[in-house]
Design a protein that fits this description.
There is one protein chain. With 389 residues, the chain is an alpha+beta fold. It has a single domain, classed as Sandwich (Jelly Rolls). It contains eleven helices and twelve strands. The protein has an eight-stranded mixed sheet. Strand 1, helix 2 and strand 2 form a beta-alpha-beta unit. The two termini are 36 Å apart.
Length: 389
């Protein structure tokens, strides 16, 4: 059996890295052959150039290079590291590692998810509607590793001023409108933290769960996710996808892994290798995942997604949202208001940048200026109203 099989004896950190080296090099070559990357190219209508949009729909992903400037990347890093340092010293603790009150103890939704070092917290479990059916390899971390490490952080629009501003980025919102239509709506946001030599894996999965049996199913019905990369990503720590799988419907992932000898290194996949400030867009129906970060480089990725309005309106909650929740017009509007507040927050910080005009809130801009009142009304605990499908 392949040494990377989750059923085999767990490899050491070094063994895991060495065992994936050839696979990672092959993936880099496959990605270079596709060359699905470049700057944000907008047409006269302010929407994605048809060639870029066609490439996204063909392969299910695109890497937009140099979208976020160095100063903004630095501001995002500062805010993200502050969140990381303010995390509870352990799950459920009231203080951080420095003995200060941990961030988020007054939040309606816990802002941190932990994992065992180099672990896979979702693979092979029923968590998140069971969409991660096979477990990844879980290498043995060093003897000095903590018992648990931060895996995900939530609530960037509330706790990261730079995060709220990037949520209103006009280039990113133009991409969202190009893919999902002018009345697009948000999904959620989460910050993936892959600490060097400690970061956990995300088992192979497809994000969407609601619409697989929809008679009107198509390759865009479950929306997409952005990832804003704050540090260099490498084949060892980045997101991997299998191009074109957004067109295939629901994939039997457990069977796919079994046919690969129960090994996590699935054939035909590519790494989304990026520089700081690059932004990936990945269709939520794509087969994708990431390996335990046995490398020497950390990765912090701001992840936030968008849907077609028609995909969420009237649907029931899924994934992290309770099934008793219904996404009616009020719920959709309240969650979408975060976009408009983000646009205003950005315009205050970047006054020379033309703000994005978000069609659902045209004429409502003055009601969504960033101030104390709108922060409490729109931003405070906004992620309790996420639109997960």
């Amino acid at each position: 059996m392949n040494e990377l099989s989750p059923l085999a004896n767990a490899p050491s950190r070094a063994e895991h890295a060495a065992g994936l080296a050839e696979y990672q090099a092959d993936g880099v070559r496959r990605a270079a052959a596709i060359d699905n990357r470049g700057p944000v190219r907008l047409g006269p209508d302010g929407r994605l150039h048809p060639e870029v949009l066609a490439a996204y729909w063909e392969h299910g992903y695109y890497i937009f290079e140099d979208v976020i400037g160095p100063d903004e990347v630095e501001a995002l890093r500062t805010d993200a590291i502050n969140m990381l340092e303010r995390a509870p010293v352990r799950p459920g603790a009231d203080v951080d590692a420095k003995g200060r009150p941990a961030l988020g103890r007054d939040h309606a939704r816990e802002p941190y998810t932990f994992t065992k070092p180099l672990g896979d917290p979702w693979g092979g479990t029923t968590k998140l509607n069971g969409r991660h059916p096979s477990q990844m390899a879980q290498p043995v971390a060093g003897s000095d590793a903590p018992e648990e490490v931060v895996f995900l952080m939530y609530g960037m629009c509330q706790e990261m001023p730079a995060g709220l501003r990037v949520y209103g980025n006009p280039k990113l919102l133009a991409i969202a409108a190009s893919i999902n239509g002018e009345d697009f709506v948000p999904y959620n946001d989460a910050i993936f933290v892959k600490q060097a030599g400690l970061g956990g894996s995300v088992a192979w999965h497809q994000d969407g769960v609601t619409h697989w049996n929809n008679p009107n199913w198509d390759m865009g019905i479950h929306g997409f996710n952005f990832q804003v990369q704050l540090y260099e990503t490498t084949p060892a720590n980045c997101l991997w996808t299998k191009p074109g799988t957004h067109k295939e419907g629901r994939i039997d992932i457990k069977k796919l892994v079994a046919e690969n000898g129960d090994a996590e290194a699935l054939p035909g996949t590519v790494p989304l290798v990026c520089q700081p400030g690059d932004v990936t867009v990945v269709n939520r129906q794509m087969l994708h995942g990431s390996f335990a970060n046995t490398s020497e480089l950390q990765r912090i990725s701001l992840t936030f997604g968008f849907h077609r309005r028609a995909s969420v309106l009237g649907q029931k909650g899924a994934l992290s949202m309770g099934a008793e929740t219904v996404y009616d017009k009020k719920r959709v509007s309240e969650r979408s208001a975060v976009i408009q507040v983000g646009i205003d927050a950005r315009s205050k910080h970047f006054p020379d940048e033309a703000p994005f005009q978000y069609q659902p809130f045209v004429g409502l801009e003055d009601e969504h200026r960033l101030n104390d009142e709108t922060f409490e009304r729109v931003i405070r605990d906004y992620n309790t109203k996420d639109l997960a499908i």
